[in-house]
Design brief:
Number of helices of chain A: 2
Mean pLDDT of chain B: 71
Oligomer: heterodimer
Mean pLDDT of chain A: 89
Order of helices and strands of chain B: HHH
Low-confidence stretches of chain B: 1-5
Strand content of chain A: over 45%
Order of helices and strands of chain A: HEEEHEEEEEEEEEEEEEEE
Number of strands of chain A: 18
Shape of chain A: globular
Strand content of chain B: under 5%
Largest interface: A-B, 127 and 67 residues
Radius of gyration of chain B: 20 Å
Low-confidence stretches of chain A: 19-23
Structural class of chain A: mainly beta
Helix content of chain A: under 10%
Largest sheet of chain A: 16 strands, antiparallel, barrel
Largest sheet of chain B: none
Distance between the termini of chain B: 26 Å
CATH architecture of chain A: Beta Barrel
Number of domains of chain A: 1
Strand order of the largest sheet of chain A: 1-2-3-4-5-6-7-8-9-12-13-14-15-16-17-18
Helix content of chain B: 40-55%
Number of strands of chain B: 0
Chain lengths: 375, 88
């Protein structure tokens, strides 16, 4: 993946860049607190819950932050429905992190823990960003190491592990006084139990039963993204981004993101955004296999599909400089999503096998309502 | 694949250590020349505007990316990661 010589070049390049003196200093992220509610409804699944994120700075060079996110899930998507014995569950995610500022360098260490009835996830991330050339350029690199435990709610003896690693690097560049571009790269390595313990596969129209998927033990992916953001004189901005992803399972995808932000008066900000995603299936995916193979997947996330999303966000600034708060806002975001699968039929049981091989689609709506404050 | 993972991790570790050392000390290599910024500080009003941030709404963006991550095969490169799925 990364040859030794490439690593040496990267180290020399980074050290060379760090050798350049700067006249502007990096700053810590803003002190802010966000608390809100989120709701998702689509594809037979409803998810809602509370979410919050708080960041506080100390002594001008230290920053700590914490986050909490709760998902209350009911229902199950078709590919899971026939196997999952429990249609309701909760997921809690906790994040704790610290950031240290030294001259033009920010160092960030964070830990995320997520827990649900049949899945537990631990991840440690370390990121460094560095401003240079008079704050015209910002470089960042980072790594994450994660360890997950996979279980089944209906089978106490079932316990599997999954280890995850990622390495990322990026650069953000001021092009003009109103235009910024950024490039990011991320390599991911996953190793362990990668399939869903409930999903099932069909072979010649016959279901092999819950848990019959079989995936390789490893998956290595690489993602590249390029994005730009432009400020317009009428107090607006437009951002456009493209990401390409490919992995060792032969999944390839492209993502296009577009966002438009506009101030209205002194208290309103409106965001309108759209997203298009397209993906080619994994080489061991089939809705209905013609024979038993070593690896078999019927996870619709590994099939060929397109999706698009359109949404908007309204922000209303409540006040400025009230007691301890510098400013605060109320936010409402609504998004519509559509998923259109080419080679996944959405069949839930063996009584529907006549439809195997046909397409499947579903739409979904998300709503977020939250309060943000800066202090 | 395990060998690939074990090759990546030392590289990550070494790069992180070197950058940390470089950032936390006065160590400087006499290499690249000084490059003068072509956008002066007094010309950065637009760049400093909150709507010019790629991640101006961290809580909302994180949730949005999680919704996509759990329903798509791709991940990474400036997009949210980590945590469980809530989708079993």
């Amino acid at each position: 993946m990364i040859k030794t010589t490439h690593t040496i070049y990267l180290v020399i390049f980074i050290l060379s860049i760090f050798s350049i003196q700067n006249t502007w200093a990096e700053v810590l992220p803003e002190e802010r607190a966000d608390i809100g509610y989120h709701y998702y409804d689509g594809g037979g699944v409803e998810v809602d819950g509370a979410t919050m994120l708080v960041r506080k700075n100390f002594a001008g060079k230290y920053s700590v932050y914490g986050g909490y996110h709760h998902d209350s899930i009911s229902g199950a998507s078709p590919d899971v429905l026939a196997g999952a014995s429990k249609y309701e569950e909760d997921r809690d995610e906790y994040t704790l992190g610290g950031t240290y500022l030294r001259d033009n360098t920010l160092m960030d260490l964070s830990y995320t823990y997520s827990e649900e009835d049949d899945y537990e996830s631990n991840m440690v991330s370390f990121d460094i960003s560095h401003e240079m050339f008079g704050a015209m350029t910002k470089m960042n690199i980072g790594a994450s190491i994660g360890s997950d435990d996979v279980e089944r709610v209906d089978l106490d003896s079932f316990a599997e592990d999954l280890d995850r690693y990622s390495f990322r690097a990026g650069i953000s560049q001021v092009i003009t006084k109103s235009f910024v571009m950024a490039f990011d790269y991320e390599a991911t390595v996953e190793e362990g139990f990668l399939n869903n313990p409930y999903r099932f596969v069909f072979v010649n129209g016959v279901s092999l039963g819950s848990g019959s998927e079989e995936y390789p033990d490893t998956r290595t992916g690489q993602a590249y993204s390029l994005k730009g953001i432009k400020y317009w004189q009428h107090r607006a901005s437009t951002s456009l981004g493209y990401r390409f992803y490919r992995d060792t399972w032969d999944v390839r995808s492209s993502t296009v993101d577009l966002n438009y932000s506009q101030y209205i008066g002194n208290q309103w900000v409106v965001d309108v955004y759209g997203r298009y995603y397209t993906q080619d299936k994994a080489d061991f995916y089939s809705d209905n296999f013609s024979s038993r193979l070593r690896y078999m997947a019927r996870d619709k996330e590994l099939s060929s599909f397109d999706s698009f999303a359109v949404g908007g966000r309204l922000r209303y600034d409540l006040f400025k400089d009230y007691k301890l708060l510098r400013t605060a806002s109320l936010n409402l975001a609504i998004e519509y999503l559509d998923f259109d699968y080419d080679d996944y039929s959405g069949i839930e049981s063996v009584t529907d096998v006549g439809s195997l091989g046909s397409g499947y689609s579903f739409d979904a709506t998300t709503i977020q309502f939250y309060f943000s404050s800066w202090f | 694949m395990l060998k690939k993972a074990t090759k990546v991790l030392p590289a990550i570790f070494i790069i992180s250590i070197l950058i940390s050392v470089s950032a936390c000390s006065s160590f400087r290599l006499p290499s690249l020349p000084n490059i003068e910024p072509w956008v002066a500080p007094y010309e950065r009003e637009y760049l400093a505007d909150p709507i010019m941030s790629f991640n101006k709404d961290p809580l909302s963006n994180k949730y949005r990316q999680h919704v996509f991550n759990t329903r798509e095969g791709a991940r990474g490169a400036g997009y949210a990661h980590g945590g469980g799925c809530g989708c079993n």
